[in-house]
């Protein structure tokens, strides 16, 4: 998981909600939060999040966004929950066979 901190120029509550909507709609984002003394830092946590695309879309709508930091975040809960083995149950294929009796005639013989 990646944790990104972006500095976004947000003057009012409308700008903050717009930034949160843009970040939440980005592919791979799990969590979004606002932090900082002036509430101008956007924290985005997720897997496979493209930081360049996210900052470009924020710049398009809010005109100012810069990347402050990107770091890998280890998820300890996830590592404990997932077992280290993989169980695979095979799928059985049962072929369908159509059997016809050559001696049985179902055709109309009167013509």
UniProtKB/TrEMBL annotation:
<feature type="domain" description="HMA">
    <location>
        <begin position="1"/>
        <end position="70"/>
    </location>
</feature>
<dbReference type="Pfam" id="PF00403">
    <property type="entry name" value="HMA"/>
</dbReference>
<dbReference type="GO" id="GO:0046872">
    <property type="term" value="F:metal ion binding"/>
</dbReference>
<dbReference type="InterPro" id="IPR006121">
    <property type="entry name" value="HMA_dom"/>
</dbReference>
<dbReference type="InterPro" id="IPR044296">
    <property type="entry name" value="HIPP46"/>
</dbReference>
<protein>
    <submittedName>
        <fullName>Heavy metal-associated isoprenylated plant protein 47-like</fullName>
    </submittedName>
</protein>
């Amino acid at each position: 998981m990646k944790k990104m901190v972006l500095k976004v120029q947000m003057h009012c509550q409308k700008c903050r909600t717009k930034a949160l909507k843009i970040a939440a709609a980005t592919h791979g984002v799990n969590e979004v939060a606002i932090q900082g003394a002036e509430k101008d830092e956007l924290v985005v946590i997720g897997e496979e999040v493209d930081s360049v695309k996210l900052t470009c879309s924020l710049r398009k709508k809010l005109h100012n966004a810069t990347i402050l930091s990107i770091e890998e975040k280890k998820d300890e809960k996830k590592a404990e929950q997932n077992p280290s083995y993989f169980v695979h149950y095979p799928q059985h294929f049962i072929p369908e066979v159509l059997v016809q009796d050559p001696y049985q005639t179902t055709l109309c013989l009167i013509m």
